[in-house]
Amino acid sequence: MRFVVRLFFGTVAGAILLLAVAGNANAQVPPSVGLKPSSGPAGSSFTISWNGFPTCRIINFFWAGTSLGSKVAPATSGSFPTAVPAGAKPGSYTVTATCTSQKETASGTFVVTGVTTTTPPPVTTTPVTPPPATTTPTRPGTTTTPPTTTTTPPTTTTTPPSSTTPTTPGTPATTSSTEPKPGELVLDRPSVQPGDELSASGKGCEPSRMVTLTSDGMEVGSAYADASGAFTAPVEFTRIEAGRHTVIAECGVRLTGAVDQVVTRSSGGQTGTLVILVFFVLAGMTAVRFR
């Protein structure tokens, strides 16, 4: 009878341990927003990353109350590439991510910086004074030929002013290792593993057109083409599946590229076996202690 009672208490202790582990696993992360970079001039590109929207499927993004667009959110975290409005003046602005279904909002601050123009100092030249003319006295009855005075003009050296190259709005910070040709989509890696960064570059889009990147029917990235129709955007697969995947860029025209996904075997499946083993060890220790 005592053995049965001890075994019962051991079982209860194990069940409490399992509930505690399950409660920690299901803890919800509060919504948050990150900006990369968090400062730059008007028209520059930046990326909004989000986390903590577990049941949200569409997230709307705003710049100081003005819509930047929306994105389907198939996961609890992700990123949204966009650009600072061209008319934004220097100062701090609030960037907000809102999930309508959850009625939850997270925000961050972006600082718009001014463009500094450097004016070179003026070049000062000193005029060269010609030497005085020398007159040779002549004897009576002698014809004097006046000497010829040659004046060398001063040499003026002009230093050309330094020029600053303006940053083209809508051009992402990252570039592909291979320059794409018109009508071509280039991926900076031939193969990736889960968690690796991947970037796509293309040329031949309609100028200033939004570029949507998809793979297997799922959106994996977006960006804006610059004035020449070129773009560079990060690619993030929402589903891990080994094999070759075709990436399609829609930007008024269709560009295609391919990349291989390499998946290695994970050891995470041993967690359930470890919890069951801990349960039986605790039950056995409790039975031996009360014997």
Q: Explain this structure to me?
A:
By secondary structure, the chain is an alpha+beta fold. Among the domains are: 32-112, Sandwich (Immunoglobulin-like); 184-261, Immunoglobulins (Immunoglobulin-like, Sandwich). The protein has helices at residues 2-25, 270-289, and strands spanning 32-36, 39-40, 45-51, 58-63, 66-72, 77-83, 91-99, 104-112, 184-187, 191-192, 198-203, 210-215, 218-224, 230-235, 243-250, 254-261. The strands form 4 sheets. A 5-stranded mixed β-sheet has the order 2-8-7-4-5, with no helix packed on it. β4 (58-63) and β5 form a beta hairpin. The longest helix has 24 residues, at 2-25. The radius of gyration is 36 Å and the shape is elongated. The N and C termini lie close together (11 Å).
